[in-house]
Amino acid sequence: MKRQRYPDGLSAREVEVLQTVARGLPNAEIADELFISARTVGSHITSIYRKLGVNSRAAATRFAFESGLASSEEGPASTSID
C-alpha cells in the first residue's frame, strides 16, 4: 500500500488537525473529534506551523484552502439545534 504524500512534509494526522483548524474548531473540540488530548493537538499545531512557515491559525487555514486540503464545502464548525 502506497502512503499518501502531503504538501510541505505534513503527516496524515497533521492534515487531519489542519482540516479541523480550517473548520474553525478550537483545540478542545479538535481533541474530542480526533480522540486525542488537547495537548497533543497543540503539539500537532506547533509542528504544522513550523512545517508551513506560518505563525497563526489564519495563515494555516489559508494554506489548507489554497493547497486543496480544505474546502468550503466542509463549511465552518457549527452547532445545530435539531
Quick tags:
82 residues; mainly alpha; globular; disordered C terminus
Strand-helix topology:
Blueprint: H1 12-22, H2 27-34, H3 38-52, H4 57-66
Structural overview:
- This protein has helices at residues 12-22, 27-34, 38-52, 57-66.
- With 82 residues, the chain is mostly helical.
Brief overview, please?
The chain has 82 residues and is mainly α. It contains four helices and no strands.
Instruction: Report Rg.
Output: 13 Å
What percent of residues are in strands? under 5%
**Quaternary structure classification:** single chain
Compressed to H and E, one letter per element, the order equals HHHH
